[in-house]
Amino acid sequence: MWTALTVLVLVGPVVLTAWRSEGRPLSVALVAVGVVALVTTGVAMTAPSRIRGLTAAFGIDRVIAGHRWLGIVAIAAALIHLVIAVVRSPKLLNPFAASLSIQWGWLAMAAMLTVGLVAAVGRRSGRRYELWAGVHVLLAAAAIVLAALHLLWLGHLVSDPVLRLVLSALALALLAVLFLRWVWRPLFSANGAYVVYGVRPEGPSTATLVLAPVHLHRGLRFHPGQFVWLRLRRSVLGTEEHPFTIASSARVTGRMELTVRDSGDFSATLAALPTGARVWLDGPHGAFTSAPEAPGLVLVAGGVGITPMMSMLRTLAESGDGRTHRLVVAQRPDEPLFEPELASLARRLDLHVTRTAGRRVDAPMLHGVLPPEPVRHRLDYFVCGSPSLLAGSLAALEQLGVPAERVNTEQFGWSGPLPIGGPDRRRTDAG
Question: Which residue in 198, 282, 340, 411 has its CB near the most CB atoms, within 10 A?
């Protein structure tokens, strides 16, 4: 559904514009390419706005990748639109002598190029990321507002009743999504309001934050393997927030657990939160979830990447699941996370736990863990951990002939596209 809706929003207005426009081919192309730039900019702004249905359908990593590509297409279309306009009327090269509508267009072009430049510079971590994200969002908003003013002042498209209706509907949908993302959820939504029930140490550098919803009947409902964004105060912009995978069972609605490794000021602050402190969650998000029809799960976890696996296993135990599951754990010897509970879960479930003991996760190791073909090809595989663990595990599964569509991955500490794996792999990024 989401794929069809995205294609309709991207292609529909362009086709409709070309059909309704009159004049020479170059004039029609000028208008159509301008609409491409406007629509793709709007969809690019919508994609990272944490629409739960979208992130659940595709995974946050694919959504963000789509956001980047749509941004590139929007900038390219805007440049082509500018070139065609100048070819038709060279005097437009001097924006100071042009009409106000053309000046709006030049300003929109400048804003879009600046957005691309800021994106090319790259993300920043911690509070610097919040500054980077704020600048990125404001520039993108300026670009689409200026482009809309350009379109309105020209008046060509809005004079057509059909196009006016379609473009108005798209504009209202964009405003609704942006209001939900940047105003309603950060400032007013009661669903994400939680209070700290306690902090449970899991190891020398890892702790579990136990949260209870402020409004018991408005706690978040989630699928095992999904994640939430957490912030310590309510604000539209400028508040630091980070994604954390949910570790608790999806069948326990009165509390939520997030296991956090001490990797910086923010995580250290979370581990030191007093009982009764309030936090705000945005979610759940992600497509790192299992299909009930699979005959069993194979879970490969590295370090704190075991967090979504614990949510899956706890949920399976609560539901009395009778399938055979396999867990491969690659952890530091001094911090064997959840070791007693995993032993308990292995008694409640048909669960086989393999600890790597420092050995690399490769094809020979997984060959000894997995069942023979053809059962191996019908299992659901989940791999979560560092980029190196994902790359090695995906290469091993590929060597063992595991179909790519059976493999789900979640990478902690996103650093770029994985070097291994086809386009059918479902991924999220909840580092």
Answer: 411
